Amino acid sequence: MAEEGLPFPEGDHWTYPVGFEGKTETPVEDWNRKTHLLVSMRDDVVARFQKGYSEDPFFKSKYIDEIPNPNTVVTPSHFWKDPNGLLYFMDADWNSRLCVPKTEVNYVLNWIHDSPFESAHAGA
Length: 124
Prior knowledge:
The protein is built from three helices and three strands, in the order ααβββα. By secondary structure, the protein is of the alpha+beta class. Strand 2 (87-90) and strand 3 form a beta hairpin. It is flat and about 50 Å long.
Protein backbone atom coordinates (compact mmCIF):
# COMPACT_ATOMS: atom_id res chain seq x y z
CA MET A 1 0.00 0.00 0.00
CA ALA A 2 1.22 3.49 -0.73
CA GLU A 3 2.54 5.85 1.91
CA GLU A 4 0.01 7.62 4.15
CA GLY A 5 -2.51 4.87 3.39
CA LEU A 6 -3.51 6.33 0.03
CA PRO A 7 -4.36 3.76 -2.66
CA PHE A 8 -1.75 5.01 -5.16
CA PRO A 9 1.48 3.21 -6.07
CA GLU A 10 4.58 4.85 -4.58
CA GLY A 11 2.67 8.02 -3.75
CA ASP A 12 2.05 8.82 -7.42
CA HIS A 13 -1.32 10.58 -7.39
CA TRP A 14 -1.40 10.89 -11.18
CA THR A 15 -2.06 7.21 -11.81
CA TYR A 16 -5.06 5.01 -11.22
CA PRO A 17 -5.55 3.71 -7.66
CA VAL A 18 -4.18 0.28 -6.80
CA GLY A 19 -6.62 -2.38 -7.97
CA PHE A 20 -8.06 -0.19 -10.72
CA GLU A 21 -7.29 -1.68 -14.11
CA GLY A 22 -7.04 1.60 -16.02
CA LYS A 23 -8.34 2.46 -19.45
CA THR A 24 -10.05 -0.18 -21.55
CA GLU A 25 -9.69 -0.90 -25.24
CA THR A 26 -13.40 -0.89 -26.06
CA PRO A 27 -16.64 0.50 -24.61
CA VAL A 28 -17.82 -3.09 -24.09
CA GLU A 29 -14.83 -3.81 -21.83
CA ASP A 30 -15.49 -0.58 -19.96
CA TRP A 31 -19.16 -1.53 -19.51
CA ASN A 32 -18.23 -5.00 -18.25
CA ARG A 33 -15.87 -3.57 -15.61
CA LYS A 34 -18.41 -1.18 -14.15
CA THR A 35 -20.56 -2.12 -11.22
CA HIS A 36 -24.24 -2.47 -12.01
CA LEU A 37 -27.28 -1.97 -9.84
CA LEU A 38 -30.11 -4.36 -10.54
CA VAL A 39 -33.53 -2.95 -9.81
CA SER A 40 -36.83 -4.59 -10.55
CA MET A 41 -40.33 -3.16 -10.70
CA ARG A 42 -43.71 -4.80 -10.60
CA ASP A 43 -45.50 -4.99 -13.94
CA ASP A 44 -48.15 -2.48 -12.83
CA VAL A 45 -45.44 0.09 -11.96
CA VAL A 46 -43.77 -0.43 -15.35
CA ALA A 47 -47.16 0.10 -17.01
CA ARG A 48 -47.62 3.37 -15.07
CA PHE A 49 -44.19 4.54 -16.23
CA GLN A 50 -45.02 3.65 -19.84
CA LYS A 51 -48.29 5.58 -19.67
CA GLY A 52 -46.53 8.46 -17.92
CA TYR A 53 -43.88 8.76 -20.66
CA SER A 54 -46.51 9.10 -23.36
CA GLU A 55 -48.32 11.84 -21.39
CA ASP A 56 -45.27 13.70 -20.05
CA PRO A 57 -44.62 16.99 -21.90
CA PHE A 58 -40.84 16.42 -21.88
CA PHE A 59 -40.61 12.67 -22.48
CA LYS A 60 -43.50 12.35 -24.95
CA SER A 61 -41.30 13.21 -27.96
CA LYS A 62 -38.54 10.88 -26.78
CA TYR A 63 -40.82 7.91 -26.10
CA ILE A 64 -41.47 6.93 -29.69
CA ASP A 65 -40.52 3.98 -31.82
CA GLU A 66 -38.62 5.45 -34.75
CA ILE A 67 -39.22 3.88 -38.12
CA PRO A 68 -36.07 3.78 -40.27
CA ASN A 69 -36.31 6.13 -43.23
CA PRO A 70 -33.51 6.49 -45.80
CA ASN A 71 -34.48 10.14 -46.41
CA THR A 72 -34.07 11.14 -42.76
CA VAL A 73 -30.78 12.43 -41.39
CA VAL A 74 -29.77 10.18 -38.52
CA THR A 75 -29.11 12.01 -35.27
CA PRO A 76 -28.38 9.64 -32.43
CA SER A 77 -30.52 10.18 -29.38
CA HIS A 78 -29.30 10.01 -25.81
CA PHE A 79 -32.66 8.44 -24.94
CA TRP A 80 -33.40 4.76 -25.44
CA LYS A 81 -36.15 2.31 -24.56
CA ASP A 82 -35.39 -1.03 -22.98
CA PRO A 83 -37.32 -4.19 -23.92
CA ASN A 84 -39.75 -3.55 -21.02
CA GLY A 85 -40.65 -0.12 -22.36
CA LEU A 86 -38.76 1.88 -19.73
CA LEU A 87 -37.00 5.01 -20.97
CA TYR A 88 -33.35 5.68 -20.15
CA PHE A 89 -31.01 8.62 -20.72
CA MET A 90 -27.40 7.86 -21.61
CA ASP A 91 -25.21 10.51 -19.98
CA ALA A 92 -21.79 11.76 -21.14
CA ASP A 93 -20.05 8.98 -19.20
CA TRP A 94 -22.19 6.30 -20.88
CA ASN A 95 -24.19 5.69 -17.71
CA SER A 96 -27.85 4.81 -18.21
CA ARG A 97 -30.25 6.84 -16.09
CA LEU A 98 -33.86 5.76 -15.66
CA CYS A 99 -36.20 8.53 -16.76
CA VAL A 100 -39.05 9.15 -14.32
CA PRO A 101 -42.21 10.65 -15.81
CA LYS A 102 -43.67 13.63 -13.99
CA THR A 103 -46.67 11.60 -12.81
CA GLU A 104 -44.37 9.15 -10.99
CA VAL A 105 -41.88 11.52 -9.32
CA ASN A 106 -43.63 11.53 -5.92
CA TYR A 107 -44.08 7.76 -6.04
CA VAL A 108 -40.35 7.22 -6.70
CA LEU A 109 -39.26 9.68 -4.01
CA ASN A 110 -41.47 7.94 -1.45
CA TRP A 111 -40.32 4.51 -2.64
CA ILE A 112 -36.63 5.41 -2.38
CA HIS A 113 -36.75 7.36 0.87
CA ASP A 114 -39.50 5.79 2.98
CA SER A 115 -39.25 2.05 2.43
CA PRO A 116 -37.11 0.23 5.00
CA PHE A 117 -36.44 -2.50 2.42
CA GLU A 118 -35.66 -0.53 -0.74
CA SER A 119 -34.41 2.70 0.70
CA ALA A 120 -31.73 5.17 -0.26
CA HIS A 121 -31.31 5.70 3.46
CA ALA A 122 -31.55 2.04 4.52
CA GLY A 123 -34.45 2.59 6.89
CA ALA A 124 -32.83 5.53 8.69
